[in-house]
Amino acid sequence: MTKEGRAEIIEMLIQSCGAIYREVPSVHNPNPMGHFSARIPGTGEIVIKPRDVGWNKVTADDLITFKLDYRKVSGPDYEIVEIPIHIEIYRARPEIGAVVHTHQTYATLMGSLSLKLELLDPNTLAFTNGVPTYDELDDPTYLTKEVGTLIRNEAQGRIAARKIGSSNALILKAHGPVIVGKSVEEACMLTIALENAAKSQIMAAMVGGSRPPIESLGIASRIPSPNLWRSLIRSYG
């Protein structure tokens, strides 16, 4: 990876953080909690936005670089308790280029209420492998006084990586989703799509009725394209 290539990934990550700030409401608004990381190809490194920097305020100087063996390479002294989410998913899925963890409102509620994503609108089509939930059945330490709802260690990170499987998203019960993409642009657009799909799911649950979960229908996945990401970024002027 050239210096220019690395800089391009970092710029896309920063722009994507701004898009998430605009498009994805958080149960913590206006607080900035959440992180967005990107793999730097050919280096064994990732760069990550720490939770203590606002989605709309992040700069290249705020990003922290880690090796996939958990060694910190560079960056400010912000705490990233949940770095195992990112590192263990990158280890398990070499095709993944970016990982996002947010506390977005509707996706968080969907996981807490144990709702299954159904075929309700086009946003759903990005998640045809389903959206599993990480909970106390997967991890007996989860939702305990000592751990709460955080993914604090490598063992938990490996559970999360195993639970997400081949899906594009995983919801941490009573906490928030983890979204993965093959690129920064894809991960950003999937984060937005998941919140829109989850909002539709919450509304459908209020109305009632029974529909099959999306993963049971055998429908081909439709992932948002990089062109859609570029169009969104340009729309901000």
Could you please describe the fold and organization of this structure?
- There is one protein chain.
- The protein has a single domain (3-226), classed as L-fuculose-1-phosphate Aldolase, CATH 3.40.225.10.
- The longest helix has 24 residues, at 184-207.
- The chain has helices spanning 3-23, 83-92, 105-112, 154-164, 184-207, 226-235; strands spanning 35-40, 45-49, 64-67, 72-74, 98-101, 133-134, 169-172, 176-181.
- Helix 3 (105-112) packs across helix 5 (184-207).
- Strand 3 and strand 4 form a beta hairpin.
- Helices cover 35% and strands 14% of the residues.
- It is built from 6 helices and 8 strands, in the order αββββαβαβαββαα.
- Strands 4-3-2-1-5-8-7-6 form an 8-stranded mixed beta sheet, sandwiched between helices.
- It has 237 residues and is an alpha+beta fold.
